[in-house]
Please model this.
Amino acid sequence: MITERDQLQPSYTNLIKERDQLQTSYNSIITERDQLQTNYNSIITERDQLQTSYNSIITERDQLQTSYNSIITERDQLQTSYNSIVTERDQLQTSYTNLIKERDQLRTKYTNLTTEKQLQFKIQQTAKEELQSRYNTMRNQMDLLQRERNGLQQKLNDIYTNNARGWLYFRSSFYYISAEKKNWDDSRQYCRERGADLVIINSREEQEFLANVVGSIKGIIAWIGLTDRHTEGRWKWVDGSALITGYWGDGEPNDTGEEDCVEFYPVNKKWNDRQCSATDQWICEKSAA
Model:
């Protein structure tokens, strides 16, 4: 009996060891299983989080798509408005073409829809400002033309009115040739009472005009607005300006007997100095402005 027990004892000890080893392996497997379960749970959790993130991204994508569609619609509306403005400004076709070229060049540099929207706004704003500028320019030109027209109409009315009163028009001035005779001072006074003065002859053309007009009246000799009564030999016009070019007759002026005033002989288109107290017809002049 003892012998058999002793024989079984090693087997029993081996079984115990094998059992312990199996128990250790079992425990290791259980630990590994628990770790795998934990990892599995972590992966499940991470998967759920990724699913949530994915869903959020899908939602955000849909919102972005909606915003994109809204921007596209708004851009199309702006394009329609732009085309309407272009249709209404035929007279600015050249400027419009330049703006379209600029818009196309800028479009190639920007693919972002927001940038394109800003570009459309800039093009429209530039077109509006240019249209406003052109409109203001045309308005100013129209106002200027209207003022010029009114001025010309006023001049025509003045010409008609003065012609009816015996005044003749020549190069922005009206001329009146008297029918009666007065001395130089009274002749000048007559002119001044009518907003004029004795004529000042500033050019060869004016001299010829007066010679032709006055010369048509037989035997006329007329006072003009030239005198040296303040300083002998220094001839001045009635506006105080000095004589530059004179059309004196032969030997004139000769100052025979204090001849300080000037009369005009249309027959020979010459001037003569004469006493201011003498009586002649006279020529008045006033501006047509």
